[in-house]
């Protein structure tokens, strides 16, 4: 073998050993702080009567959230509280019960906006985050609650900050919370996880204040990961609309847009977890013959037993509706979404097929994981929960390999969820640009090798 050929062979071996052109070698994003991967679910204590803790199949998850403890503000005494006494029994059994069957499971306690008193609850968050004394009291009380009830972490589900000062104070709160967790960990076996449940995009479109962006530097610096609420896009609409579309060429309200906005804002993929809903949005059609997406509606759908909310259906209720031979099911491959129409009722929801496509999208973009919201709304067979977990583990095992340190690394991105959705995926996710960068680098190396052989 000639000297130049030998040199080329050695260079080739070095190239494929160290992969210097792969943009730092794109990771499977399963190596984030606190976990190798996240297959999470939110269990709503509000629906514990229909779906008790004992009904949870913990084997389908790596992390489970107790949702939630609302924050209340006592204006007279200038104090905050996160301890409703009526939830003490549930708090006491949640982690203990689940970990008895799944010791590796990690549980987190979510402190959230109270949906039934959203304005007052968000005002409490705003007041707490703006006051150093209240912040300290809030932080200390959350740590005490987590430790006393065997939780492995804490979650902030402020839905949502509504002013620039709220966002600034949120960043300060996260700095102080992380510092206190670090201090507390010196006297504990391990540090508590710290996550946040956030808007689907890093920019809030629904607020009156313009240019309202999350403090992404503080988020990256302090949180183990964020859970993006990638659903509920069209709550108030006079036409039928996809409530959790993966793609939407006509607006910013899509999961792909939201995930990309977080990535573009500087949140690492290894700290980003994508939400998949187990609830659907329903409407009454103006004309039951006109039952496609974008057709006129007269009102939100009926109040449902599971959610006790107008226009919100649990997946288990939607599944029962699908058994009616008069109903029609449509999978929309352009938006990667599904809907059901039955008479004058129209429901947008995530079918098992959509859920699996979204899992593939998350892995295509090397996200840390996914979460289901809420797991109480799955059917008795845990259809969506199993579909999502199986899809994640199947793709996780087949698309990655372990390096010498035991971490999983991803090769080039996988195929887009749907062939006809590949174009919007490439345009929105930025994966095409990353792939082009890698291909250009490989071409340059190939030309170098050819030169050495000459």
From TrEMBL:
One of its GO terms (molecular function) is chitinase activity. Residues 37-395 form the GH18 domain. It comes from the Eukaryota. The keyword ATP-binding does not apply. SMART domains: Glyco_18. InterPro entries: Chitinase_II/V-like_cat, Chitinase_insertion_sf, GH, Glyco_hydro18_cat, Glycosyl_Hydrlase_18. GO terms for cellular component: extracellular region. The keyword Hydrolase applies. Residues 1-24 form the signal peptide. Keywords: Glycoprotein, Glycosidase, Hydrolase, Signal. GO terms for biological process: carbohydrate metabolic process; chitin catabolic process. Belongs to the glycosyl hydrolase 18 family. Chitinase class V subfamily. PANTHER family: CHITINASE, GLYCOSYL HYDROLASES FAMILY 18 PROTEIN, EXPRESSED. This is (wild Malaysian banana) hypothetical protein. It comes from Musa acuminata subsp. malaccensis (Wild banana). The lineage of its organism: Eukaryota, Viridiplantae, Streptophyta, Embryophyta, Tracheophyta.
């Amino acid at each position: 073998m000639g000297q130049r050929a030998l040199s080329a062979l050695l260079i080739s071996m070095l190239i494929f050993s160290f992969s210097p052109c792969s943009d730092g070698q794109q990771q499977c994003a399963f190596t984030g702080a606190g976990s190798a991967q996240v297959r999470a679910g939110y269990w709503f204590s509000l629906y514990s009567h229909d779906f008790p803790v004992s009904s949870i199949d913990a084997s389908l998850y790596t992390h489970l959230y107790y949702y939630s403890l609302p924050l209340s503000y006592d204006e007279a005494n200038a104090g905050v509280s996160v301890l409703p006494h009526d939830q003490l029994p549930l708090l006491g059994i949640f982690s203990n019960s689940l970990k008895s069957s799944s010791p590796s499971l990690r549980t987190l306690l979510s402190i959230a906006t109270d949906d039934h008193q959203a304005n007052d609850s968000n005002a409490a968050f705003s007041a707490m985050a703006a006051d150093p004394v209240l912040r300290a009291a809030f932080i200390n009380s959350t740590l005490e609650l987590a430790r006393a009830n065997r939780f492995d972490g804490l979650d902030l589900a402020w839905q949502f900050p509504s002013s620039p000062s709220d966002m600034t104070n949120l960043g300060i709160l996260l700095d102080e919370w992380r510092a206190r967790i670090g201090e507390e960990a010196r006297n504990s076996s391990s540090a508590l996880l710290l996550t946040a449940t956030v808007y689907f995009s890093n920019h809030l479109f629904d607020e009156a204040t313009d240019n309202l962006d999350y403090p992404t530097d503080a988020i990256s610096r302090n949180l183990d990961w964020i859970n993006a609420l990638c659903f509920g896009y069209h709550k108030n609409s006079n036409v039928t609309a996809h409530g959790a579309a993966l793609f939407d060429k006509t607006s910013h309200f899509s999961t792909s847009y939201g995930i990309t906005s977080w990535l573009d804002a500087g949140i690492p993929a290894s700290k980003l977890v994508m939400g998949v809903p187990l609830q659907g949005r329903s409407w009454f059609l103006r004309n039951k013959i006109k039952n496609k997406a974008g057709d006129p509606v007269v009102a939100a759908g009926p109040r449902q037993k599971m959610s006790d909310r107008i226009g919100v259906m649990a997946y288990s209720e939607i599944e029962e509706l699908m058994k009616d031979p008069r109903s029609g099911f449509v999978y929309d491959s352009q938006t990667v979404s599904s809907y059901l129409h039955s008479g004058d009722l129209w429901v947008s929801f995530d079918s098992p097929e959509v859920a699996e496509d979204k899992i593939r999208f998350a892995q295509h973009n090397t996200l840390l994981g996914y979460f289901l919201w809420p797991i109480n709304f799955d059917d008795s067979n845990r259809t969506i929960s199993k579909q999502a977990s199986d899809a994640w583990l199947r793709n996780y095992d087949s698309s990655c390999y372990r390096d010498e340190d035991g971490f999983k690394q991803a090769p080039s991105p996988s195929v887009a969820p749907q062939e006809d959705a590949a174009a919007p995926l490439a345009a929105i996710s930025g994966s095409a640009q990353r792939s082009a960068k890698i291909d250009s680098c490989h071409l340059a190396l190939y030309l170098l090798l050819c030169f050495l052989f000459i």
